[in-house]
Write a structure and sequence with these properties.
Helices cover 0% and strands 50% of the residues. Strands 2, 4, 5, 6, 9, 10 and 11 form a seven-stranded mixed beta sheet that branches. Strands 1-3-8-7 form a four-stranded antiparallel beta sheet, with no helix packed on it. By secondary structure, it is mainly beta. The protein has no helices and eleven strands.
Length: 122
């Protein structure tokens, strides 16, 4: 059974940085394309970034392009989201997402983590 566990969220001031991690267990990590989504209360879940099985291609939402970087370490079964120059509008619960099919921008995979809260203060 595939499980995803995120970590690395927290409270940061605007302009700061955080790195989120997501570990996949229960299956072969390199078989999965990975994505990050975020959600704020009463709004729909929003695509943030995605990465292919071997580290490419990568896709980003326009709102985070140039500030966030998605990467993966297949030896550690982990995908990362490096978030720089954070803004208050980045405040959300961030979810890790996985699927054995390729994940284009906005495509939601079959497996989800429990989420990690990111709060950016102004």
């Amino acid at each position: 059974q595939v499980q995803l566990v995120e970590s690395g969220g927290g409270l940061v001031q605007a302009g700061g940085s955080l790195r989120l991690s997501c570990v996949l267990s229960g299956s072969t990590f390199s078989h999965y394309a990975m994505g990050w989504f975020r959600q704020v209360p009463e709004k729909e879940r929003e695509f943030v970034a995605a990465i292919g099985w071997g580290g490419d291609p990568t896709f980003y939402a326009d709102s985070v392009k140039g500030r966030f970087t998605v990467s993966r370490d297949n030896a550690k079964n982990t995908v990362y989201l490096q978030m720089n120059r954070l803004e208050p509008d980045d405040t959300a619960v961030y979810y890790c997402n996985a699927d054995t099919a390729g994940m284009g921008p906005g495509a939601e995979g079959a497996y989800w983590g429990q989420g990690t809260q990111v709060t950016v203060s102004s």
